[in-house]
Every structure is written in structure tokens, then in C-alpha cells.
Specification:
The complex is a heterodimer. Chain A has twelve helices and two strands; from the N terminus they run ααββαααααααααα. By secondary structure, chain A is mainly α. Chain A folds into two domains: about 45 residues, no CATH class; about 210 residues, MetI-like (MetI-like fold). In chain A, strands 1-2 form a two-stranded antiparallel sheet. The longest helix of chain A is centred in the N-terminal third of the chain and has 32 residues. Chain A is globular, with a radius of gyration of 22 Å. The two termini of chain A are about 25 Å apart. By secondary structure, chain B is α/β, with parallel strands linked by helices. Chain B folds into two domains: about 190 residues, Periplasmic binding protein-like II (D-Maltodextrin-Binding Protein, domain 2, 3-Layer(aba) Sandwich), CATH 3.40.190.10; about 160 residues, D-Maltodextrin-Binding Protein, domain 2 (3-Layer(aba) Sandwich). Chain B contains 16 helices and eleven strands. In chain B, the strands form three sheets. In chain B, strands 1, 2, 3, 6, 10 and 11 form a six-stranded mixed beta sheet that branches. Classes of the chains: A mainly alpha, B alpha/beta.
């Protein structure tokens, strides 16, 4: 009983800890003016949203969505294949192979982008494809890691059972593997989506200014004075799509739970 | 067996491809020059081009001016102007240098709003197209002997960038808190000591913070040469850092910490946590007061001895495939109509680079009739006793000296 109360209090504290920093951003996004030391905005309004829309927020959201979905679409299957190989197959040098797959985590995307942008330019790879490729490299460690956990809990005997019963490769893939791994795939895809959705430096440098995504727009506004309303409005709007995905993910996990 | 062989061949090809791609022939540092010989040729080549203008996107008024005033004017000349918002102009320079290394001649940056060390860095690497500003018909309205247009932080302009507007380093205060403001920089430092916690400056290498310490340098040391030399640094930096160390305990939070950027300082001022701030872009003040970000009692502090001024420019990267279009835009931006529109406080409020003696009577009258900002004095007043910037080489030396001597000393 007492343990339950403590655990619940801890959970509430954790939620507050995460949500508290968001409160000023939420308030700023609907404030025209807010001066220290006032505790609440001195003038409510939607100038932030209007500025964001006139600065091309709609296009920026479309660009970010394209980046996020493309990176998720490439990095998730790649991570799944790598993880399957690492978990279910005999791999020489398993440790170094895993370390190599996770290596991009050790480098900031900036360092990755700075050398690769010249290579990508020289190879004549179009901006969007170049940015997606580099961001996919950044995302693969996350998807590999999540899928390794997924495959760790995966029982290959279901697959073998289906094969014995005469199921084809496709049937095994669609009816056994995908359903069993769905929660892990969704989580990995979500993380990869976030990599594309939130990136600034690769999008700008490799995208050559053709990809004005939400972070590029936010970064530009945040570097100036008096732009809190527009930065907040864009930030709040930018949190919405990942939040929706996260809720869908929870529902998916809920359904799968026994 | 066969599969293994194919795999090995593929690997060899891949390695060879990467080696070829990565094997950089270093780009030549010589600045290229435009191919067109007459302005008519440039205008003809420009029609149908799309020009990507990379510029700092933190100033909403500036963004709006480009989108709704400059871009339509460019469209009339057949050029589509596309604005790329960046948080820092250095990102544009990085992109150009990468394109240059890759041997790209149809790059994604066609025009850059640039100034100071970003220009110097690019010029050193031959990243800018040069000797093209003489061709611009609207250059006739600028003063060919204006020192601010001939040298950009000590780097000779050499026709590698077209002037866009002028700026003046400006101290700003709240009249409600300082009814009797000091009139000299020494007076400001004394005021800061008398009112502990109400003054601070952004930590170098923030652009404006650096300017401030250079202003103090030229006040505490006599005859600081514009050109940098180690001897000059040795001689003049000691009294500067003594003064700043002496000032530190009286600063905001007792000088144990500094705002990291001028935006943070602006926010402290907007919040009423300090009574004075500084900016190299006084043009935005009118709008910031109008929007209520800064109090109505915001005033510009005019120093008896004047402050430093500079001009900012539009440069065309040598990697641009639309350089004719970019030059046409630079020329339009320099026209009396555009300079006038941009100077209106409700549009952008930027000071013109044109010389009023060279304008026709009608244009001169229009400039004279510009509405006065309630906050920002005219350029003539603001630039009284103006001094040119010290050469770029001073900047990193003083920034590093400040970090070691003043920041580490607290």
C-alpha cells in the first residue's frame, strides 16, 4: 500500500518534471507580450501563429514530415535486418559488428555532416536524398538497438512451426514475424521519425537550403530578439505530430499486452 | 564462388569510387570574375533565374522586407528571389566552401547577406565572385570614397560584395530607470559601478559583446591602430582587461556569469533585469518598442566620442550558377527606391548606404521626408564621430584574451 503510494507520487513527480518546462512555451505560444516578472502573459493573442504561417510554416511542416517518414522508412527495416542478424544468426565478431552499428551514436550529426556533405555534393546526389541518407545513418543505431531488444523477446520457433505447416516466406513474414515484432517496429520507426523530424544541421547543410524544415525555421527565429511568440507557436505545433504518434504507439502496445 | 567474386568486385569499385570522390584537388583560392562584360548581358542572363538569398532569419521585419518588397521588385526583372533563413551566416559560408571543395558550379547559395569575419573567411578561400560591383548601375549613388564601403572590418571589399545598409554600434537605455544618462563610455562604466547589477554585456565571442570590448579598448588605450599586430595587442590589451576586471563585480550577477548572446542581453533588458543594452542593429529598435518587447521609455544613448559603425553587404558565391540573377538583385537592392523603402521605420528602418549628394532632388527629398523613429535618432546623429571597425584579426585575439583574463578571473 505504502509502496504503491510512493510509486504513484514518484510517477507524478516524473510527469511534472517533464511537463513543467513546457508550460512557459505553451503560454508563450498564445501570448503577444509577456514581461518579467509577470507570472502570466500580459497580453494574449495569436501573433506568434500568424508570423509562423506567413514565414512558411505549412511548407516547413511538409518538409519535416517527408524527412521523418523517409528516414523511418529506411532506417527501420535496416535496423531490423541488422538486429535479426545479430540476434538470430551466427555472426563473426559479433561484438565489434554491434559496436560498428552503434558507432554513429558516438559522433554528433554535425561531425558526420561536415565531411559527408562534400562527398555527397561530389557524387551529385540530390539534396533531399543526400539529407535522408545521412539522417538514416544517424537513425540506424537507434533502430538496431530497439530491434535487438525486440528480437531478444522473439521466439523463432513460431516461424519454424509455420514453416513446418507449409507456410511460404511471405506468409511467415506477414503473418508471423510482423505481428510478433509490431511493437518493436513501431518504437524503432518512431525514433527514426524523430531523427528526421528534429534535425537541424544536416537538413540545412546537406539540404542546401532547399529543405526549410521546422527546426530550420525555429533556429532562424530563435537567433533573434523578441521572437518568443513565433518560436513557441512553432515549437508547440512541432511537438504535436510526435505526440500523436506516441499515443498511437501506446495504444498498439496496450493491445499487444497479454 | 561467383557471388563472392561479384561481391569482391563491387567492394573494389565502391572503394575506388570513394577514393575518387574524396581525393580532393584543393580548390584554387583565386576569386573568379564574372563572365559577362556588359550590364545588358547580365540582365539578359538573369531572366528566368531563381536566386537563393541566404540570410540571418532572426529579424522578422527583415524577412518581411525581403519577401514582400525586394522579391516583387526582383520578379519584375524576371528573377525569382527565394529567401533561405539561417540562424548564423557562417552556415551559408560552410555550405559554399563544401560546394567549392566538391567543384560544384551550380550551387544552392546565390546571394548572402554578409559582413565581417564571414566575408573575410570566404574571401580568403576565394568563395566570392569579385570585381562585379563596378558593373552595377546603382553603385553611382554611393560615395566611392566612403571608408565603410571600401573595407569590411579591415578586409578590402574589392568589388566582392555590394553594399546593402549601414549599421552603428549603439547603447540603449531605459529612461524610466536612468533619467540622467551618462554621455561618454567612461561615464557608462562609472554608472555601472554606481548601480551594481544593472549592467552587463554579452560574453565574447558573441558579435556584439566583442564590439563592446573593442569600444572599451579604444577608450582606455590611446591610438589603437586599426591593423593588428602582436606588439599592438601586447601594448593595448592590458589596460582594457584591467578596466573590465575592475568593472566585473558591479555587473549583473556580480560578473560571475554573462549573457551568452546579445539576444539574451536584449531579453534581460526587455524583462527589466538590466537598465542598459547594446546592439549593432539599431534599425530593429523601433519595431521592438512598437511591439511592446521593449518598454516605451527605451532610448538610444548618444556618446560624445561616437561609436564604431560598419556596413553590411550582399555577396555572390563563386559557386553560384545563378550569379547573373544574384547581381541583378544586388543592383535592385541598391536602388534609391529600395533603399528608401527599407529605411522606413515601419518596414525595416535600415540606414541607407547611398550618398544623398548623388541622388536626384526627388529622391533626396523622399529620404529627407522619412518619418522619424520615436526611438532611433537619424543616421547623421547616430554616426556622429563614427569610427571604422578594427581589422578582423583583432577580434579573435581580444575574444581569447577576454576569456583567459576576465572570464577566468572571476
Amino acid at each position: 500500500m505504502a509502496v504503491g503510494t510512493v510509486a504513484r507520487a514518484g510517477r507524478v513527480l516524473l510527469v511534472v518534471w517533464f511537463l513543467l518546462p513546457l508550460v512557459p512555451i505553451l503560454l508563450w505560444s498564445v501570448a503577444n507580450q509577456w514581461r518579467f516578472p509577470a507570472l502570466s502573459p500580459s497580453e494574449w493573442g495569436l501573433t506568434g501563429l500568424r508570423s509562423a504561417l506567413s514565414a512558411g510554416a505549412v511548407d516547413a511542416f511538409a518538409t519535416s514530415a517527408i524527412l521523418g517518414v523517409s528516414v523511418a522508412g529506411l532506417a527501420t527495416p535496416a535496423g531490423a535486418l541488422a538486429a535479426r542478424g545479430l540476434v538470430l544468426h551466427r555472426v563473426h565478431f559479433r561484438g565489434p559488428a554491434a559496436a560498428l552499428l552503434l558507432a554513429p551514436l558516438a559522433f554528433p550529426p554535425f561531425a558526420v555532416a561536415m565531411g559527408l556533405d562534400v562527398l555527397i555534393l561530389r557524387a551529385g546526389i540530390p539534396n533531399l536524398i543526400g539529407a535522408v541518407l545521412i539522417l538514416t545513418v544517424v537513425a540506424i543505431p537507434y533502430t538496431t538497438y530497439i530491434m535487438r531488444v525486440g528480437f531478444g523477446a522473439y521466439d523463432i520457433r513460431y516461424e519454424e512451426e509455420a514453416r513446418t505447416l507449409g507456410a511460404s516466406h511471405w506468409v511467415v513474414f506477414w503473418q508471423v514475424q510482423i505481428p510478433l515484432l509490431a511493437p518493436a517496429i513501431a518504437t524503432a520507426g518512431f525514433l527514426a521519425f524523430l531523427v528526421g523530424w528534429t534535425d537541424y544541421i544536416v537538413t540545412l547543410l546537406v539540404g542546401g537550403g532547399r529543405l526549410v524544415s521546422v527546426p530550420v525555421l525555429v533556429g532562424a527565429f530563435a537567433s533573434g530578439s523578441g521572437n518568443q511568440p513565433v518560436v513557441a507557436a512553432l515549437s508547440v505545433a512541432a511537438i504535436a505530430p510526435p505526440l500523436v504518434l506516441l499515443l498511437l504507439l501506446w495504444r498498439l502496445r496496450g493491445r499487444r499486452a497479454p | 564462388m561467383a557471388a563472392k567474386q561479384i561481391g569482391r568486385t563491387l567492394a573494389t569499385v565502391a572503394v575506388a569510387a570513394v577514393m575518387t570522390l574524396a581525393g580532393c584537388s584543393a580548390p584554387s583560392p583565386d576569386a573568379p570574375e564574372p563572365a559577362e562584360t556588359t550590364w545588358t548581358e547580365v540582365e539578359e542572363a538573369a531572366v528566368g533565374q531563381t536566386v537563393s538569398l541566404w540570410m540571418w532569419g532572426g529579424d522578422e521585419q527583415g524577412n518581411r522586407y525581403v519577401d514582400s518588397v525586394l522579391a516583387p521588385a526582383a520578379a519584375e526583372a524576371g528573377v525569382t528571389l527565394r529567401r533561405v533563413p539561417v540562424a548564423d551566416t557562417g552556415e551559408a559560408v560552410n555550405r559554399i566552401l563544401a560546394e567549392r571543395q566538391a567543384g560544384i558550379t551550380d550551387g544552392d547559395v546565390d546571394l548572402v547577406w554578409v559582413n565581417g569575419d564571414n566575408f573575410a573567411t570566404g574571401k580568403q578561400a576565394g568563395a566570392w565572385l569579385c570585381n562585379w560591383t563596378d558593373q552595377l548601375p546603382n553603385m553611382q549613388y554611393t560615395d566611392p570614397d566612403d571608408p565603410l564601403l571600401l573595407s569590411d572590418f579591415g578586409t578590402p571589399v574589392d568589388g566582392c560584395e555590394a553594399p546593402w545598409h549601414k549599421a552603428q554600434f549603439t547603447l540603449v537605455y531605459d529612461e524610466a530607470s536612468i533619467p540622467e544618462p551618462p554621455a561618454t563610455l567612461e561615464g557608462v562604466l562609472q554608472w555601472a559601478k554606481d548601480n551594481p547589477g544593472r549592467f552587463t554585456y554579452p560574453a565574447p565571442p558573441d558579435f556584439t559583446g566583442s564590439v563592446f570590448i573593442r569600444e572599451v579598448l579604444t577608450r582606455v588605450a590611446d591610438d589603437v591602430p586599426l591593423e593588428y599586430s602582436d606588439e599592438a595587442y601586447e601594448q593595448h590589451s592590458a589596460p582594457l582587461f584591467d578596466t573590465l576586471n575592475d568593472l566585473a563585480p558591479s555587473l549583473w550577477r556580480a560578473g560571475r556569469t554573462y549573457p551568452q548572446t546579445v539576444e539574451e542581453l536584449n531579453q534581460l533588458f526587455a524583462d527589466g533585469q538590466v537598465d542598459m543594452m547594446m546592439t549593432y542593429g539599431p534599425a530593429t529598435l523601433t519595431d521592438l518598442v512598437g511591439r511592446g518587447t521593449f518598454p516605451d521609455t527605451t532610448r538610444v544613448l548618444l556618446l560624445d566620442e561616437g561609436t564604431v559603425g560598419n556596413a553590411s553587404f550582399l555577396a555572390v558565391p563563386s559557386t553560384s550558377g545563378n550569379s547573373a540573377g544574384a547581381r541583378v538583385v544586388a543592383n535592385i537592392a541598391l536602388s534609391p527606391q529600395q533603399q528608401l523603402e527599407k529605411a522606413k521605420p515601419d518596414v525595416w528602418g535600415q540606414f541607407t548606404v547611398l550618398d544623398s549628394d548623388r541622388l536626384n532632388d526627388e529622391d533626396r527629398a523622399s529620404f529627407d521626408a522619412l518619418p522619424e523613429s520615436p526611438v532611433v535618432p537619424t543616421y547623421e546623429e547616430l554616426s556622429r564621430n563614427a569610427r571604422p571597425e578594427l581589422a578582423t584579426a583583432w577580434v579573435p585575439a581580444l575574444d581569447e584574451g577576454w576569456r583567459r583574463t576576465v572570464l577566468a578571473g572571476r
